[in-house]
Structure formats: C-alpha cells, structure tokens
Write a structure and sequence with these properties.
Layout: E1 4-9, H1 21-25, E2 32-34, H2 37-43, E3 51-56, E4 70-74, H3 80-92, E5 96-100, H4 102-106, H5 108-111, E6 117-120, H6 127-136, E7 142-144, E8 166-171, E9 174-175, H7 186-190, E10 195-196, H8 199-211, E11 216-219, H9 228-243, E12 251-256, H10 264-273, E13 275-283, H11 287-292, H12 303-313, E14 316-323, H13 332-341, E15 348-352, H14 360-367, H15 394-408, H16 411-424, H17 439-449, H18 453-468, H19 473-493
Helix pairs in contact: 8-9, 9-10, 13-15, 16-18, 18-19
Length: about 500
C-alpha cells in the first residue's frame, strides 16, 4: 500500500457564535475564526515516510479524487452527518476510512458501521501501532487511545494548513478539567485530571504560529487557569515570549471559570502576559439550576460582580448562557434577560441546554425516558434541545429562547452592554491618532445600515467609541463582527419563527 493519508475536518451542521461565517455569507471576507487544531495535530503523528495532505472544509472543498489511500475524518457531534456522508463517498471509491475525534470517542457505536477503523480517545501513544498496522495491511477495526503525557504531543503541522485564512491560531496547553458539570462531554474523554505541556513546549508552538503570521492565539484548554501554580509558571513564560516580539506581539484568549475573578494576582498576571479575552461559562443566574448541573463554582458568588472584576482588570469577557435546566420554568427568560443586561459583556453565547452523548445528563435523560429520539445523538439545532424539559414544553422552551435571543441582540440592548464594557475596561495609552473604520468595519456597517434605525445607531456608536477609545480598536472590531454573526443566526434561525404571545418581541431583526 502507498503510504499516503488525507485528513479532513468536515463542515458543521450549523455555525456558532464564534465561527464568523457572517464574513463569508455577507461576501466581505473569506476567513474563518479559528484554525483547525485537530487535523494539524493528527498530521504531526503521521510517520515521516507517509505523504500527508489536509482539508479544513470550511476553507477548501473536499478532494474526492485524492490519490491518498487512507482517509482520516475527525469531528464533533455537530459534524456527525457530514462525517458519515464523506465516509460513504470515499469508501465507494475504495478508500480506507478512519474516524477519530471527540464524537467517535463519545459514541463509537453510532459511527462504527460507517468507517473501516475508528480511533477513540487521544492518539499520541497509539499512533505508531495504528500506522504500522495500516502499512502492513493487518489493521484492526477499533483502536483505543490513552491519556498521554502531553510532552508526547508534537507541534501541529501548520505548514500544511491554508495560510492567511484563519484569524486565530490555536495552541492546546492542557487537557482535562477537574470540574464535574453534568452536561459537559469534554471530561468524558479527556478526563478530570488535568495534564499540561511544559511552558517551553508551549513557546515552541507559539514560535511556529508566529512565523506563519498569527497575532491572535487561542489557548484551546478546557480551563486555562484552574491549576494556579501551573498557570503562573506558564504566564511567566508567555510574558517573556511576548517581550521577545515587541513589533509583533500576540494577543491571547482562552476559556476560564468564574473563580479567576477572586484571584487579583492571577488576573494581573494574565493581563501582563497578553491575555485580552476569556470565555466564561456562567450558564444561568438560577442557583437551583447551577446546583442541579453541578456547576458548584458558580453558586456561592455574585456572578455579575465577578464578571465585572475580570473586565475591570483589562480582560474582555464572553459569557456562555443557557436555558432549559430542570429548575427553569417560563420565568427564566425574563430573569436571564435582566441578568445579562447587568453585565459589562456585549458578547453572549446563548443557547438551549442539550444532552450530549456519554454525559451524565444524557444518561439521566435516557433513564427518565425524556430523550427525543429524533435527535438521540445530541447534535441539536440552534435554540432546540434533544430532551423533554421538566417545567415547560419543548415548544415553550424554544419560543422563550427565541424571544430571549432577540432581546439580547436588540441593537439598543447590545449598545447598553457595549457602553458598560467600554466604561468598565481600563484605559491604556496607544501610540498614534485614533483610527477611522477600516475596510472590514465599513463593509459590516454598510450591511447593517440596511437593517433598520437601531442598527444604524449601533454602527454610529461603534464608530464614536473607536475614536474615544483607540486602545480598544481591536476589541471593538471583534465585537462588531460578533454582533453581525449573532445577527446572522437570528436571521437564519429565529426571525422566521412566529412571535411568542407571552413574550412579545420588542425588537425583530430582519
């Protein structure tokens, strides 16, 4: 067998808040937000005497005529259907198809019939045996990975990845999370014992991304700051690394838990190292729902006050918010709206609770007979769930979520949170005069201007803030794009739905 492999990350069933699909849909820029870490990492595990090509389907079309003998396909649950479709077409062409990644690790029985080989879990330690077996023609149908020491994880093959298309590079500095949220699928295959890369190993990965032109890098950790001693050591190295690139310093972003806010020294250290934004899973102001889902770290604090502390330190926050817990009745939508309005956080990733396969939530819903068989895999659709809520119907949950989505992203509501963010975020000196809108901002502003008076006023606010706070130019541009992406999601999934009688829509984005 010729030793050649074609690695594919398929498109997802629907775009999320962070995909920036709006730039492509509105024909403004051919770009994706995050580079793909899965196919580039696995490519680095392929033996040197193999020929490797990769495809991020968000960027390039899949080459069904590839000369490669082996096709590797990875994906999350949102990529499930496309994974199966691609496998069927390649197997019909006589190719050997391998499935790997998060979804096959969580639900191997679902995907096993559609591939020749499935690889569950982390591949670093089993990759040599896998490729040796394939080369000899004596491969097995099922390979199970281990929880490897991350010093074994190679630098991803960014040399194979399309250049100048992804805005944000990615580095994974740790795997696993010690928390035990009921709906989280990550800890089911990466574990609750966190494992780390050494700071110098992280710096070597940063060197490669910097050489390829990335100036914004996302640390794809499940919880970047949860282990304090390790985090401080890494932040020291990041600050040192950034200081070595004064004309091309990098802004970092990552995911953290809200307990970061209680550690002033750690906050200051994050800022000094170049951390400019974090995602925090707040989920809900309903303490009963937080207890239900075992989100204990969010319970005994004033969540709005803690989020404000992070912004006051000089780090922009993006909040994840969810409705649909068993302790949520129809009052949750107004409660969530009031809570979100109290935050200095324009960017809200809002959704409905879904039970991913292999999670404790999925098992509980299955035992209680509440799973919706139409979507038994937890693939979900925007503002839909795959189980029967406890205190309302699925239709009531969907209608309330639709109302809340429109409420959160009404231009005036977004403008209030934007102003709160700017007023809360500390001012820093920036060399040079204030900058007017560039081509990207002008193109987005022109598109929004056709949507209504509220959107035109919001664009004017963005422009005035850009002059008032030149130190926030990059963050304001990101928030403008984020708003447009949320706008796209509303256009695609919410506005076409009928109004909600008990929650009359105050703003309808069209």
């Amino acid at each position: 067998m010729t030793r050649s492999i074609y690695l594919i990350s398929p498109t997802e069933a629907f775009p999320g808040y962070h995909s920036l699909e709006v730039l492509n849909t509105w024909r403004i820029l051919n770009a994706v937000n995050f580079s793909d870490l899965s196919i580039t990492t696995f490519a680095a595990l392929v033996p040197r005497d193999w020929h490797v090509t990769i495809c991020d389907e968000r960027i390039n079309r899949v080459d069904f005529d590839t000369a490669a003998d082996v096709i590797g396909i990875t994906g999350k649950v949102s990529q499930r259907n496309r994974m199966i479709e691609l496998a069927r077409k390649f197997r019909a062409r006589g190719k050997l198809v391998i499935f790997g990644g998060p979804y096959v690790s969580l639900n191997p029985d679902d995907l096993r019939p559609h591939a020749d080989i499935i690889v569950r879990g982390e591949a670093e330690e089993i990759a040599p045996r896998l490729f040796a077996d394939i080369a000899s023609g004596k491969w097995e149908k099922d390979y199970e990975g281990t929880k490897p020491d991350l010093s074994l994880s190679p630098i991803p093959r960014w040399d194979l990845y399309p250049r100048r298309v992804a805005i944000t590079g990615q580095v994974q500095t740790s795997r696993g999370c010690p928390f035990d949220c009921e709906f989280c699928d990550v800890i089911q295959y990466l574990g609750r014992k966190q494992r780390w890369k050494e700071p110098d190993q992280v710096a070597r990965e940063l060197d490669v991304l910097h050489r390829f032109g990335y100036r914004h890098i996302f640390f794809a950790d499940d919880n970047f700051t949860v282990m304090r001693r390790r985090t401080h050591a890494l932040l020291d190295r990041l600050a040192e690394w950034n200081a070595q690139h004064p004309t091309g310093s990098v802004r970092f972003s990552t995911q953290v838990s809200v307990d970061l806010a209680s550690d002033t020294a750690l906050l200051d250290h994050c800022v000094a190292a170049g951390l400019w934004s974090v995602f925090i899973g707040i989920e809900t102001p309903n303490r009963e729902s937080l207890a239900e889902t075992r989100k204990r770290q969010n319970i005994r604090v004033d969540l709005a006050a803690e989020v404000t502390k992070v912004v006051q330190s000089g780090i922009m926050v993006m909040c994840g918010m969810i409705v649909g817990f068993d302790h949520d009745d129809s009052s949750i939508f107004e409660r969530q709206a009031a809570f979100i309005e109290s935050l200095p956080v324009p960017a809200i990733s809002f959704g409905v609770l879904v039970a991913p396969h292999a999670t404790p939530l999925y098992a509980r819903m299955q035992n209680e007979g509440r799973l919706v068989t139409l979507d038994d895999y937890g693939q979900g659709e925007f503002l839909q769930t795959n189980f029967q809520p406890k205190l309302m119907s699925r239709d009531e949950l969907h209608a309330g979520a639709k109302w809340l989505m429109n409420r959160i992203y009404a231009p005036d509501a977004f403008a209030r949170r934007l102003l709160a963010f700017v007023e809360t975020f500390p001012t820093r000196s920036v060399p040079g005069p204030p900058a007017a809108f560039g081509p990207l901002e002008l193109a987005l502003a022109a598109r929004l201007a056709h949507c209504g008076r509220g959107e035109r006023d919001l664009v004017a606010l963005f422009e005035s803030l850009r002059y008032k706070r030149p130190d926030l130019r990059a963050l304001l541009t990101y928030l403008l794009v984020f708003y447009c992406q949320a706008h796209l999601l509303i256009e695609r999934y919410s506005v076409s739905l009928p109004p909600v009688p008990q929650y009359p829509q105050r703003v309808k984005i069209a």
